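User:
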Amino acid sequence: MKKEKLYKTFDEFYPFYLSEHSNRTCRRLHFIGSALVLLILIYSIVTMNWLALLALPVVGYGFAWAGHFFFEKNRPATFTYPLYSLVADWVMFKNILIGRLKF
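Assistant: Predicted structure:
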């Protein structure tokens, strides 16, 4: 069994995170899932439909994990680094949005 590196800082972790998202379709699915999470969150707040918030993890993780299992063919870093992965997903989303990473 391969021993995973322990990352002590987010700056150490983020290059690893990007390497786990080298497949463009995987990155696109992450981006779409994150965008939908934002839309659902806004919808919930505007309509005060708090039940819609239950869809957030399903949509967010659903798109991301589909990208990993079907396209990237790796295990999501969320399982080992849940907090770093959550932050990295939003950093990657921002970087795609501003054109720093290819969509």
